[in-house]
Specification:
This protein has 11 helices and 7 strands. It is of the alpha+beta class and about 300 residues long. The strands form 2 sheets. Strands 1-2-3-7-4 form a 5-stranded antiparallel sheet. Helix 1 crosses helix 2 and helix 7 packs across helix 8. The chain is extended, with a radius of gyration of 26 Å. The termini are far apart. The structure holds flavin-adenine dinucleotide. Flavin-adenine dinucleotide (FAD) binds next to helix 6. The site of flavin-adenine dinucleotide (FAD) has 10 residues, from helix 6.
Length: about 300
């Protein structure tokens, strides 16, 4: 798995450079006192699933992964928002930027989604004979990318500093970075960036990284997939409606839960989730508030 460069988009890649830890190390960190190999695999699985379900996250921070990635700048701009990673990026102040731009084939220009204002749906027709068909947009893209790079090159030839010469390079130009993150925060990244509402370009990178995590930490990955990625939260009202639904028409619940692989404890916790409304009154009593000065009053002796 290490040093294998997985292609993403046209010139991008993801490569695992190093990793630390395993599912067993996560278990060991959680139990501290247990040595490796002294427990069965099913124990590891049960514990990791317990940790994931109850958001006991620190054992997952014991594992680290370091990647080498090449990503177009617009995608990198989203990636770099994940502040819990350590990053070392290619310096275009120090080095010349290679002419490597992400290109969009004529049939892959996505249309604006009218419902989700941040998203896209469907594709522009490649050859519709219109003024702005996919073919024309791709030709314009090629022209623009070349022109911006010619300007960059002319500035360098004229002796302009690399830090200034780069300013008109397009967002489609690729950057490279080393990106190191612990497993807990990586799963958070994947949870946001593997979802269908994430932009397709970053999702492609996230999906490759998810594949690497699945290979390295199969039990953790399965638990994350079940308890985080595909899990949903319910409002109090939805919860109430689900309870009615279950009580009225859903007999044989336990047998079915077992048949899809839930342990007794998981079933108990699920039943509790479906039957308990966790109502708490958080209304604050304004009259109980004091002035700041009240906290500094000296007790009369
Ligand atoms: C679909 C989608 C659309 C988005 N749209 C926009 C947009 O329109 N505009 C925009 O600006 N951003 C947008 N973002 C970026 C988003 O708001 C987050 O900045 C980004 O996803 C990183 O998430 P994070 O802060 O949870 O992750 P990380 O930075 O990796 O942090 C992980 C966790 O650590 C904690 N943490 C980290 N730093 C701090 C801190 N300083 N203070 C408190 N807690 C901290 C938080 O619990 C956080 O969830 C979008 C993201 C997605 C997935």
């Amino acid at each position: 798995m290490k040093n294998k460069y997985f292609p993403v988009l046209d010139y991008g890649f993801v490569a695992l450079k190093d990793s630390m830890g395993s599912d067993e190390d996560i278990e060991q960190a959680a139990r501290i006192s247990y040595g490796k190999g002294t427990r069965k695999k099913s124990d590891t699985r049960n514990l990791i699933r317990y940790l994931m379900r109850h958001k006991h996250t620190s054992p997952f921070e014991m594992c680290e992964l370091k990647f080498h990635v090449r990503v177009p700048m617009d995608c990198w701009r989203q990636w770099i928002r994940h502040r819990t990673a350590s990053v070392n990026e290619y310096s275009s102040r120090y080095s010349e930027v290679p002419f490597l731009c992400q290109k969009t084939p004529a049939n892959l220009w996505r249309l604006q989604n009218v419902v989700n204002k941040q998203g896209s749906s469907g594709y522009l027709v490649e050859e519709n004979g219109g003024e702005f068909c996919g073919k024309v947009l791709t030709e314009e893209e090629t022209y623009l990318q070349k022109l911006s790079y010619i300007c960059y090159d002319h500035r360098l030839k004229a002796g302009v500093a690399r830090e200034q010469a780069r300013k008109d390079l397009p967002l489609s130009i690729y950057t490279e970075a080393f990106w190191k993150i612990d497993l807990h925060n990586l799963l958070h990244f994947l949870n946001l960036r593997c979802q269908t509402n994430a932009q397709e370009e970053i999702r492609k990178y996230a999906n490759v990284i998810a594949g690497i995590v699945k290979k390295l930490y199969p039990i953790t990955f399965e638990a994350w997939y079940d308890y985080t990625f595909t899990a949903k939260t319910f409002t109090q009202t939805e919860f109430y409606l689900m309870r009615i639904y279950r009580e009225q028409i859903y007999e044989g619940f336990e047998a079915e839960a077992r048949s899809v692989g839930l342990s007794s404890r998981e079933i108990d916790e699920l039943v509790e989730k479906l039957t308990t409304v966790n109502y708490q009154d958080f209304t604050i009593n304004i009259d109980s508030a004091k002035d700041y000065a009240d906290f500094n009053k000296k007790e009369e002796v």
